[in-house]
Each structure stands twice: as C-alpha cells, then as structure tokens.
Amino acid sequence: MTPGVISEIIIDERFKRLLPEMDAHTRAGLEESLLVFGCQNPLFLWQGILIDGHNRFEIIKKHNLPFNIVSLEFDSREEVVVWIIDVQVNRRNLTPMQLSYYRGLHYNTEKIIITNEDGRNQFSEVDGHNDHQPLRQSTAVRLAEVYNISPRTIRRDSELANALDAIGEHSPEAKRKILSGEIEITRKQLREVAAGSENYVSELAESIDNGTFVRRTAGAVEGSGEDSQIDSEQGDLQPLTKMFSQITEDFSSALRNMKADNDVDYVRSALRAYIERLEELYLNLN
Which run of H or of E encompasses 95? Predict the structure, then answer.
C-alpha cells in the first residue's frame, strides 16, 4: 500500500456505473466512520483508474482525508470488469435483479476475453449451431457452478444484462433505477428490450426517466412449460399455486420412478432439476 493523492485518481464512469448505489442511511454511516476512524481500507486502482472504493473516495475528497492505494495489474478492461463483479457479488447483499445482471455481465465479459485471446469470435452462431459450441457450453457450465445455478439461467441472465446495458446507453439513470428496484420491470419486458429496435429501447428508457413507465402485472413464467400467468399485484395466486404443485408433483413422480433405492446420482439429478424450476419461478415473481 502507498499513500494516495486525490488529484491523481481517475474516475471511469463505465466502471463506476457497475457499482450499486449506496442508500443515504448507509452512506451517512460510512461518512461518520471515515471521519472518526479514518480510511482504514485502501482504494484499488488499475492504471490510475479507481476500480473499488468509489463511495469512500467521494467522502475522502469532501473532507480531504488521507488514504492509501493498492495498484492491481490486469491485461484488459474486461478482466477489470470480472474482478469488479467478483468483489461486488461477494461483498454485498444484492437484489435478485442486481445478481442476475452481474451473472449475465460476467458471462458476456468472459466471452469477450476468450474472443480477444484467440483472435476470433468463438461464440458466433449459424442456424443455432457453431463449431465452438463446447467452449460456449463450458463457459456457461463453469459460471453456473460458480454461482450455484443452472447454465440455462446464466444464459438468460446474459440476455437480461444485454437489455439493461442497452437501456443504460440511452439513460444511465433508467438503468440505475431498474437495478436499485426503484423501478419494477418484468423479466419478460427486459427480454423484449434485448430483441427490440433502437427506438423501442429509447422510448422505454425515456418513459422511465419521465415517470410514465408502466410495469406489466402479468407475464408468462420462464421455463415452466406452462402458459399460465402470474398477477401478484392483483393478488391472484392460483396460477402460482398450480405451477408450484406441478413442479413438486413432477419431482415426486421422478423419485417414484427411481429404479434403485440407493441411486444417489439419480436423486441428485432430479433434485437439481426441481431446484432449477423453483429458482426460475422465484426469479420471475419480480
């Protein structure tokens, strides 16, 4: 660690926007702590750019407090993004939307890193297939193991991250409102953003900014295999109860069809499928 100089710290807005906003109460507590105890934790930099400690740095500048820095080495911006994601996921209590965004961004960033390393796009698809499909699958599987979810969820999070980044290009404030939970938007609406035109994305971002955005109260549950709708705001939980009962019944049926009583691998596979379907049901309640 070395002493830091405020004027030498570079703020990169794209890195800064990766970080969840700190609420006023937590920020006030941090400011009080820094004023009483000083800045105990260093700020982390890459090539002079601040990559961790933005909230502390703003308070340090406000009160001209002394601080230390640690400089880290990375080969690219993408590697910095992966490091930031890892720090945020392990440090904070994230909302489901924030966690999904980070997982999807992690996956998308890993694709860029691998493409840059090999000098070709190993993820381009033709008619739904490509010559490098095993690599794509291994990336999704690897990150799924890291986050303890399914590869399918990782790929859906990738679409969600693309949608939020597209919104952020038009309005960083609209993206912030979605991630913070200030604006509620269904995952189905975000998937439509990913597939929509530039005008559609622009209009949606503008509606969030000017307060005219309307969240849909009903949407199909992803991965359920059902056309049922959930309308939690209307208080109609009958479709939800039906889908939950179906998922549980499928799991029970799978156990009844087990060929051997001690087939642990079979039980694990059935349980994993059950958990994944419950997870998708849970995520789509937002």
Answer: none
